[in-house]
Amino acid sequence: MIKVESVSHHFLADYILRKVNLEVKKGELMVLMGPNGMGKSTLLSVVGGLISPFKGSVFINGLQRRTKADEEIAIRQQTFYLPDQPWTPHFKTGREYLLMTGAAYGLDPVETYEHSKKLLELYELTDVADHQCTNYSQGQKKKIGLCSAFVSKAKVLILDEPLSGGLDSSGLITTKKLLKGLADNEDFTVLMAVPVPELVEEIGDRISIIVKGEIVCTGTLTELKKQYKTEGSLAELLESIINPGNKKALDDYLAAHH
User: Fold this and answer.
1) Fewer Cβ within 10 Å of end Cβ, the chain: N or C?
2) Contact between residue 190 and residue 180 where contact means Cβ atoms under 8 Å apart
3) The dihedral of CA 240, 244, 248, 249: what is its sign?
4) Residue 25 within any structural domain of the chain
5) How many domains does the chain have?
């Protein structure tokens, strides 16, 4: 379980997060959505332990982040944070990187090797698995980053825009199916930020929308449609919440330029 309590964070004088409260239940896939620059990546960085919030607390399975060393180590053993631009070791191969990830999580090296082999096949990376990561394209780096998240077997995944960053159609389909499989497994908890509604409409258990650093609503797609009296797609729902005046502005523009 992930629990965010009254988290605020700022860079210089500008607040990026404002008293954010959010709870992702065990076995749930929560999709965090909102316009660019609204605080999605900052929130995931805080939850992932990359930065410490100015105020507030984050708990992972009952343990508080960035307080006691032993608790933080315990959290890191069960959590994997993947930023939107994954880090890869320049002079290690993709296969070596996955084996290193397994070792960092205390997994059996033989099992990690076999697991890595399957993931490399799924992401069509077999031909470059033994090439140095520095020679990978942007899309290949994204894929190997996703492979590292899945090979870790971490029960809590914090993924920043896992469906973007140069993924091809095959990579998108593979990632969505893997995430859907995890979402159906009650042992895994996933919090992921996604900018494009069409990519996640069918896989998210609940959706949380952040605007100007504040969570404005959280619920299932059905619950949010009912709350905002919208019968359309997730994209239309998102637009009605984030920019309710945009439809009239578009209609006025088209009428004036017809």
Assistant:
1) C
2) no
3) negative
4) yes
5) 1
**229 contact partners, CB below 8 Å, separation of at least 6:** none
Task: Report the CATH number that the domain containing residue 34 is assigned in CATH.
Answer: 3.40.50.300
> What's the Cα-to-Cα distance from 227 to each of 29, 133, 207, rounded to whole Å?
21, 46, 13
What is the span of the domain harbouring residue 161? 2-219
Q: Is residue 27 part of a domain?
A: yes
How confident is the model over 43-69, as a mean pLDDT? Answer: 94
DSSP code for 3: E
Can you tell me the distance from the alpha carbon of 171 to that of 235, in angstroms, rounded to the nearest whole number?
Answer: 22
pLDDT at 60 over 80: yes
Instruction: Note whether residue 54 is domain-resident.
Output: yes
